[in-house]
Amino acid sequence: MTTTLSGTANDRPKPARSPWKALIGGSIGNLVEWYDWFVYSSFAIYFASAFFPKGNSTAQLLNTMGIFAVGFFMRPVGGWLLGRLGDRKGRKAALTATVTLMSVSALLIAIAPTYGQVGYFGAAVLLVARLLQGLSVGGEYAASATYLTEASAPGKRGFSSSFQYVSMTAGQLCGLGLQIILQRTMSEDTLQSWGWRIPFIVGALGAAVVFYLRRNLLETEVYEEEQNEGTATATAAERGTLRGLFAHRREFALVIALTMGGTVAYYTYTTYLTKYLSNTAGMSKNDATLVSFCALTIFMLLQPLAGALSDRIGRRPLLITFGIGSMLGTVPIMTALQDVDGFVPALLLMLSGLVIITGYTSINAVVKAELFPTHVRALGVALPYAIANAMFGGTAEYVALWFKKAGAESGYYWYVSACAAVSLIVYFTMRETRDAALSRAEKEAAEPSGDKRLARA
């Protein structure tokens, strides 16, 4: 009898799983995603005139930002499509799809023809790019949240998932840093002529690098276990479907409610506050930008510490701390910022707000992933989160400016506090998710030894 040296595919040893490779590959797409999101908003003042007729610069900017807003409405669609893909075809497939959309959208903006060259066709290209970017953002959060949660050891999920917001903040800082460099090395005329294309070329190249990294990722063992078990039952048929998700409608509503306060606070203290320091507090744009850069850097470094803390004491204590802090602290912090005088006081006040929301940002991804079973986990994280983000996060800046225009800017502070209060009720009543067992092996490890013997018998 002869034997073959090659063996079957199933006999071959699988490549070793590297926790750090999984962590970097799962989270780095957020860096590119938020870099692209930031540079579109911040460089719009330079490229708005390229896509619309000359004349009223405010009208040009409004049209450009109108296209920017479309991306928010595409996020729930992206959450549904890519969440479904992640549950049916695998976490790796969803991660690869999101980064492909990222690269294409950035490249389209980088090469889009101007109004002077092709009329409104250039604006149409810009619109298509934003639609693709909205789809990508809608799916990226859930794809990375699900992958990071499933690829991590049970006692390190909070720490690993916190790198989602590390990478998101790093993306903003990269965009901000490139903007500062270009503003100091190029004239405004050069930036408006062609310099604004540079950030999008960088974004497209960055997405290509992430694509390579993700192509070499291993699928999570949790997802593979469910695939191999093959449950040729309702679970398999409902994998990644709205019908399957509807069976977990309580968790669906829970994700929307717990996201509500967090996303409003996040956009307030990260995106809106730079404009607030300039427009309301009267700081120069350069000082306001520097305050934000320093505060966001410290905020980024806090995420893994808070995530690791949640692995020791649980998720709910951090969420409750955020809810109470945001509900009671937003009004005094924002009121104090109105009359802030100097770099250091502004930095300390902004940091106090960012420290509060760290209780949410560091662990919100893992909490959502731990709420759902494997066959609808990606969709369960993606769709309700995208809906909540479009409703509350995407509108935060608009609501803030509406209150300011109405002469009642402090009304926005109370709005943020009220959103946090709603989420706080959820944090008090929801179950602790830290010890949720995601796989059969984790369930067996959690059982008493006697129960394990009975189960095997």
What's the helical proportion of residues? over 70%
General form: globular
CATH class of the largest domain: Mainly Alpha
Unreliable parts: 1-12, 452-457
What is the H/E string?
A: HHHHHHHHHHHHHHHHHHHHHH
Query: How much is the average pLDDT?
Result: 84
| Secondary structure tally, helices | 22
What's the structural domain tally?
2
Which class do the helix and strand fractions yield?
mainly alpha
* CATH-assigned fold name of the largest domain: Growth Hormone, Chain: A
Question: What's the CATH H-level homologous superfamily of the largest domain?
Answer: MFS general substrate transporter like domains
Q: Could you tell me the strand content as a percent range?
A: under 5%
What CATH architecture label of the largest domain applies? Up-down Bundle
Largest beta-sheet characterization = none
Over the alpha carbons, how many angstroms does the gyration radius reach? Answer: 23 Å
